[in-house]
Amino acid sequence: MRNFSYARATSIDEARVQAALPAHALLAGGTTLLDLAKCGVAEPDTVVDITRLGGLDTIRVDDRGARIGALAKMSHVADHAAIRAQYPAIAEALALAASPQVRNMATIGGNLMQRTRCAYFRDPAAFPACNKRNPGSGCAALGGVTRNHAVLGTSDACIATYPGDLAVALMALDAVIHTSGRSILVEDFFPLPGTTPHRETALEPGELITAVSLPATPAARRSTYLKVRDRQSYEFAAASAAVGLELEADGRTIRELRVALGGVATRPWRARAVECALRGQPLEEARVKEASRLAVEGAIARGDNAYKIDLAPRVVARAILAVGGVA
Ligand SMILES: Cc1cc2nc3c(=O)[nH]c(=O)nc-3n(C[C@H](O)[C@H](O)[C@H](O)COP(=O)(O)OP(=O)(O)OC[C@H]3O[C@@H](n4cnc5c(N)ncnc54)[C@H](O)[C@@H]3O)c2cc1C
Ligand code: SF4
User: Fold this and answer.
1) Distance between CA atoms of residues 193 and 152, nearest Å
2) pTM confidence score
3) Nearest ligand (C-alpha, residue 234)
């Protein structure tokens, strides 16, 4: 790992100015940034520690919604009683992510900014071709081992999966990401790779995430996050689904449904076709399974990742049935 300087920001403005300088990187929990520096992907000259910025670690939940500070630790949010009661999908997504040690260090803002686990991206010495790391250099994953790569939202330039869990739950629950200068719908925060996979978020240089907010809705209260992975802990999703559900007064007709997928797409993936197909319909196993196939509409398999096209709809159906009390 290259040497770098350390600076501590004492205000958001100072952090913004510092972060906008070339080769300066914000440091929150450090669980991603230092990893990437060790493998030679991140090469900061200076890391700007934002962990002492006051007021960014608070979690507030009331009748209108929730506001979670960017510096709140993943473990604090996962354990927060009101988040668990009002936004179970958020608490579950965080509790199923990484390990207790990582969750105790890592922050909400850092979690949203984590980068892909594409093995080619993370090994620049062995694989110089990576459009995300080095625009225009090609993609070593195409034609390589693709078991963990995306089947949705890919392009000829990049097929890397967005790896995080939290953003998938935020996508299902229509969260807003607040920065030092504006508010961005989570849907608009993560672009598709297209021809510019190096542009991974809507953040401009020097822009900080300050908080995430969530509207209070019946679908958020009745929500869940289901994650399928190769082992039960310390593992990224092979496929995951965040689901929010509201039933009519009859207790069986779907009034509102929110579905987002993780582990299978280049960004947190909202499955609106599944939502539309089931809204107004009775919550029945066969119907849910049939509609869940729409979750992978337009999917493209590239070798070893074909299994995700079968797996993802099953995960979606299981999550809908579980949150509806059918399974
Ligand atoms: C072994 C391992 C397993 C993991 N498994 C999972 C998993 O299953 N699911 C999952 O979701 N995650 C997983 N993670 C990722 C982990 O959740 C992230 O590393 C963590 O959330 C990053 O938070 P941090 O505060 O440590 O970020 P840092 O490492 O400090 O920062 C990460 C990036 O975000 C930027 N940044 C940080 N804060 C801000 C801010 N407020 N505004 C703008 N930019 C900011 C930094 O400059 C940096 O580029 C895993 C990580 C490890 C090491
Ligand atoms: S899939 Fe994307 S991140 Fe992975 S090597 Fe190709 S361009 Fe790089």
Assistant:
1) 11
2) 0.98
3) 1
